[in-house]
Write a structure and sequence with these properties.
The complex is a heterodimer of chains A (305) and B (343). Chain A is an all-alpha fold. Chain A has one domain. In chain A, 62% of the residues lie in helices and 1% in strands. Chain A has 11 helices and 2 strands; from the N terminus they run H-H-H-H-H-H-H-E-E-H-H-H-H. A two-stranded antiparallel sheet of chain A has the order 1-2. The relative contact order of chain A is 0.14. Chain B is built from 12 helices and 14 strands. By secondary structure, chain B is α/β, with parallel strands linked by helices. Chain B starts with a helix and ends in an 8-residue tail after the last helix. In chain B, a hairpin with a 2-residue loop joins strand 12 and strand 13. Classes of the chains: A mainly alpha (305), B alpha/beta (343). At the A-B interface, helix 1, helix 2 and helix 6 of A face helix 1, helix 3 and helix 4 of B.
């Protein structure tokens, strides 16, 4: 219950001597990080997580090989502007495979993977029954929820980095590297190109913060991990479809996916910040709204599974 | 690692000190709080569907007792345990565990409580040892420096050392049950709440668990044991409470509860019809006859005279005994129903 966390616990003042003969050790301030580490390790040790990361790593490989085969005769990979952003430039510079791969995975593969991990976060523990043992340990509801959310955010970053790294390796193996052309037409060195690629990866990871919060909220609503995962992934798809319907243009700026592809603006010279800032602001709003909702739900919920 | 008995005593003292100090948020501190480890008053849970799972429960579990919590399936035992552990918010009433209100003082109380609730729950993809390490990490008071040692000790105590490295999904039901028990024993506890701890165990495993419970009780740990196995409760418990349809129908010392139901006089004879007639003459009530067994409520007079009368009437007596009332008899007397009927 929420009261469990807010109630004043008669603990010794920090720095003061603990009560003589006290068998119950005062929690170390670093205890939460131990719980977080256990959570991170447990998440990464699941086969499901590894499979998701494997799929994400395979996307740049497929795109890279497809582009290589298509352009073997010296043809144009872009087919007159079709396909994900930047795809026509890959043959000139392997670094563009990073941008292409992120543009290809951001609309579906990345949010799906995050939806699975976030949806499973609480509901999965509830359906396996392990949640009740974590709570009577007692991990504390607020602390457990924060740990879970931090873990999902770490997974967002990990998933994005897996795509980036895989694309970078495949790009370097299959295509030449070197100076590159920005969208604005100016040339930048390879070193600065790498920095921008890393920045883009970070922005893409941050774009998933909203989905992560939404998934965590859904996860507190049900006792079935599968139901929570399916609902979250379903919401991701639904919102993207709604974002394509012109009649809903008044609502679209509030869809978490609306500004996702603004990460390409980091490849302008100078960088065009407006949509990037709107995207990050929107993600923060989602995190605040659905994070609070998840907290309100989880701290008052009866754990009967 | 401290010896369990010394640590237990310390825990007791710390608890006493806590009670003396006016802790914030306390509303009452009656002297009876001192000796009860669990104290529920009017504890009620009505689920959203309107179903009344627990109805005005008044439960007192004395310190250092082995307390049996009995009731048919669906009688509200598990809901009660979940309310005591802060997993479910009561609709009405209060619950105090180790003298502190639940669920408000969960952070202070639960580290001193080991629990096995509705069977074990494990991460199948982790080894038994890693499962325990994870649960121990979730306890804010657990010292990470002694974690591996305490996990090894807990595994040893439930006899799982050999299988500690195996993935938990490969465990049999009995092994999972043992691992669940090990999780409850990771730290010295003042209270153990064990919900059906011998489920899925073979007779040898059941005996081991009973021995373990007696050992823990001898160390001063209060054990709250829910079970539907009456003879198990009779063998290990000092106190018991009986629930039926969400209400508490009895609680007290096991001996007192069993004494509530009277024993039965049983005569084994090849002449049951004649024996039944003589017994009725001798003032034996409720005489029933089943094959060569004739039974009835023993009369107030000396049973030796009853036997003499049987012999005098030419009844050939093979056996003449008074069967002690069991807890099961008490249970049936209290609830008026068979034990495995869902309430």
């Amino acid at each position: 219950m929420s009261r469990a966390e807010t109630a004043p616990v008669s603990e010794p003042v920090p720095g003061a001597e603990p009560l003589p003969g006290s068998a119950v050790r005062r929690p170390s301030p670093l205890w939460t990080f131990g719980l977080l580490r256990s959570e991170l390790v447990t998440t990464v040790r699941r086969w499901r997580t590894l499979a998701l990361l494997g799929v994400l790593a395979a996307v740049p490989v497929l795109v890279g090989i497809a582009v290589k085969i298509e352009t073997r005769g010296g043809g144009d990979a872009g087919h007159g502007g079709q396909g994900p952003a930047f795809i026509s430039q890959i043959t000139n510079n392997g670094l563009f495979l990073v941008f292409t791969a992120l543009a290809a995975t951001l609309p579906f593969f990345l949010p799906m993977a995050v939806g699975v991990v976030a949806g499973d976060a609480i509901a999965g523990e509830a359906s396996s029954g392990t949640l009740r043992y974590l709570l009577v340990a007692p991990a504390g509801r607020t602390r457990l929820l924060l740990t879970k959310y931090t873990t999902v955010l770490a997974f967002c970053l990990l998933a994005t980095l897996v795509v980036t790294l895989s694309a970078l390796i495949v790009g370097a193996l299959l295509f030449p590297l070197g100076d590159l052309m920005t969208i604005s037409g100016t040339r930048i060195g390879f070193g600065e190109g790498l920095v921008r690629a890393l920045l883009i990866a970070l922005v893409v990871a941050a774009s998933l913060v909203g989905v992560a919060a939404l998934g965590l909220f859904v996860s507190t609503l049900t006792g079935s991990g599968i139901a929570a995962m399916a609902t979250t992934v379903g919401l991701v798809i639904t919102v993207q479809i709604l974002d394509q319907i012109p009649q809903l243009h008044a609502l679209q700026p509030y869809f978490f996916s609306h500004y996702w592809l603004s990460f390409a603006d980091l490849m302008r010279d100078p960088v065009y910040w407006d949509d990037l800032v709107k995207n990050l602001g929107l993600q923060a709003l989602y995190a605040a709204v659905f994070g609070s909702a998840a907290w309100a739900r989880f701290t008052t919920k009866d754990i009967s599974a | 690692m401290d010896g369990p008995s010394a640590t237990e005593r310390d825990a007791q003292e710390a608890g006493d000190a806590e009670r003396r100090a006016p802790a914030p948020g306390r509303t009452e501190a009656g002297p009876d709080v001192q000796e009860s480890v669990i104290e529920a008053r009017g504890l009620t849970k009505r689920y959203r569907g309107g179903q009344l799972a627990v109805d005005g429960l008044d439960l007192i579990v004395p310190a250092r007792s082995v307390f049996g919590f009995l009731g048919p399936n669906g009688s509200g035992k598990t809901t009660t345990i979940r309310m005591l552990m802060g997993l479910i918010e009561p609709t009405a009433g209060t619950a105090r565990v180790l003298g502190r209100p639940m669920p408000r003082a969960a952070r202070a109380v639960l580290p001193q409580v080991g629990a096995l609730i509705e069977g074990p729950a494990l991460y199948g993809f982790l080894s038994g040892r890693d499962n325990l390490l994870r649960y121990d990490t979730a306890d804010p008071t657990a010292d990470p420096r002694t974690r591996r040692v305490r996990v090894a000790a807990a595994l040893d105590r439930v006899g799982l050392n050999a299988a500690a490295g195996k993935k938990a999904k490969a465990y049999s039901l009995g092994m999972k049950q043992r691992l669940g028990l090990a999780a409850a024993l990771l730290q010295p506890r003042r209270l153990l709440v064990l919900d059906e701890p011998t489920n899925g165990l073979d007779p040898q495993g059941m005996r081991e668990i009973r021995t373990l419970i007696r050992e823990l009780a001898a160390d001063g740990t209060t054990v709250f044991l829910s079970s539907h196995l009456l003879d198990e409760i009779e063998q290990v418990c000092t106190h018991a409470a009986v629930m039926a349809r969400g209400r508490l129908v009895a609680q007290g010392a096991v001996a007192d509860l069993a004494a509530g139901a009277r024993g039965r006089l049983v005569v084994t004879t090849p002449d049951p019809a004649e024996a039944a007639r003589v017994l009725k003459e001798q003032g034996v009530a409720d005489v029933t006859s089943d094959g060569d067994r004739v039974a009835g409520e023993p009369p107030a007079r000396d049973l030796a005279e009853v036997n003499a009368a049987l012999v005098a009437a030419g009844v050939r007596v093979r056996g003449f005994t008074v069967e002690r009332a069991s807890l099961e008899d008490a249970f049936v007397a209290l609830t008026g129903e068979g034990f495995d009927v869902a309430g």
